[in-house]
What we know:
Strand content: 5-15%
Number of helices: 8
Radius of gyration: 23 Å
Strand order of the largest sheet: 1-2
Amino acid sequence: METINLIYIWLLQDVKQIHYATVKDKFQKTVHCLEEENEQKMELKVGNSIISNPTEITDKLNSHFISTVKDLIKQNNNVSVYDFEIKHCPNSIFIYPVTEEEVISLTKSLKGKPTSGDDDIPENLVKQCIHLIKGPLTHVYNLSLTSVVFPVLWKTAKLKPLHKKGDNYDMNNYRPISIIPVFAKILERPMYHRITSFLYDKKILSEAQNGFRNGKPIDTAVQSYIERIQKALDKREHTIGLFIDLSKACDVLNHNLSLEKLSY
């Protein structure tokens, strides 16, 4: 654990030194973009008052986001949980090591945005320097996988309120976006590829699940729905559609149930 953090701190210093020596002009453009973003003023309505102080807005939004999720969790705790059978998989997953080529490929696939996480290292900066830091970065990733420890410094995310719709002064019209460090984002990708590959290979996922899957986007769910309606009409049967939109579904996800599923 301590070794990973030390390597990460050294990596941060190395990236900054390389960047200042080779891409000063691009860095200045990145800083300019960040300054323009920070200059955007935000105001909220609290009661009958309009607040504009950044610190006060941050505190109000933070309390709002936390309380909203807590209220939804309390509501869900009162709902009966139906027993269902979890499909058991007798095979174990093997997490093979990350290679330098894979780290370069995953980094190059990033959008290269000027935004940064809590470590203040922009995504486009790492994308420019990846060939110079691929060695130590690959070592950190493999050390994390073998020790089953995610670096503590990468667990802190920068939260940004994103306006969804409606009145800009209403806190209910904002949702939090977590901006994680770019090094954490890169580490998530090889782990994601290994897990999804295992799920597809062992046919663990239900064929009825659409969305967030290769070859089965939301379009296939709509197509399947239309085909069922057409078949029902041909048989002169009645068809009923039930559509459910879960509010803050990811925030109120039952972690115990997820862990129980993963144990199978």
